[in-house]
Amino acid sequence: MKPPSFALMVIIGMACTAEASTTLHTLDPQAYRDEAALYPSVGKVAGNGITGSGVLISNQWVLTAAHVALGKQAGDTFNVGGVDYTISSSVTHPNYLSAGSNSYDLGLLYLSAPVTTAGPAQMFRYAQPSSIIGKEATYVGVGFTGTGITGVSSSAPELRAFTNLIEFYGEQYGLTNTSIVSDFDNHDGTINRADSIAAATRLEGSLAPGDSGGGVFVTEGGVRYLVGINSYSGYVNVGGMNSKYGGISGAMDLQQFYPWIFSATGISAVPEPGVLWLCALGGLLGLVRRR
């Protein structure tokens, strides 16, 4: 694992709302808290700059949004499993500022001591990257709540999770093509986007202030894998306030950033079995050629 570097950058304007947190469908809030308990690697990032969320990807590395990592200093904290861990350094993606938008909204935090209260999330790489579209995902973060009717409330942030379908890449609506997007559907079928490709999921929800840097997880083979980092929320061709029905939630598509994550941390994603088979076949063919 490579040692961390302490590189901080200055924030600029985002293409969409840069904050994110869990806004719920009008169901029992406890169901969303219980769902979040299945993802113990997600915690709260606090200190200088924006307060948000992060995901533990090793015992000392935390993956988060660039606009959350931005400005974090030695002594700031990542709380996971009910314990505060001290941040020793922070880095944002090298293209974050030069892109002029949230196209590279990823950051890394290095902790001064190993985490003992939670295990790290595993990242997943599909053999065909577009396979992620149409998957039901779970968005997890520490943020404000509310409902699809009221939007974000002023209640204190807490760890919650909601489900949603990953429907398209951001470029479909002129947003960043490095993001995956879900929309917030009402269970009764009203106030939904006309271009939505599915009905509401079992714990439908949306992002709102506080969830930025939290994780998007997809279950494959019974394992909950990290595939995205919460980045923005907003509306496209739909009026109204963020985090109400009809809004969208955007997350960085980690498949497009694995080379950077690996080079900075030494941590790699778990390949889909098909990729393993192709790698093994490639090695076998190379052996045959050498013979």
CATH class value: Mainly Beta
Contiguous uncertain segments of 5+ residues: 1-20, 275-291
Total strands: 19
- Taken together, the total number of domains comes to 1
CATH architecture group name:
Beta Barrel
Give the helix/strand class. alpha+beta
Q: Share of helix among residues?
A: 10-25%
- CATH topology name, in short, is Thrombin, subunit H
User: What is the alpha-carbon Rg in Å?
Assistant: 19 Å
Strand content: 25-35%
Name the overall outline.
globular
Q: What is the residue-averaged pLDDT?
A: 82
Separate helix tally: 4
Major sheet characteristics: 9 strands, mixed
Describe the structure.
The chain is of the alpha+beta class and 291 residues long. The protein has one domain (23-271): Thrombin, subunit H (Beta Barrel), CATH 2.40.10. Helix content is 13%, strand content 32%. Strands 8, 9, 12, 13, 14, 16, 17, 18 and 19 form a 9-stranded mixed beta sheet that branches. The chain has a 6-stranded antiparallel β-barrel with strand order 2-3-4-7-6-5. A two-stranded antiparallel sheet has the order 1-15. Strand 16 (215-220) and strand 17 form a beta hairpin.
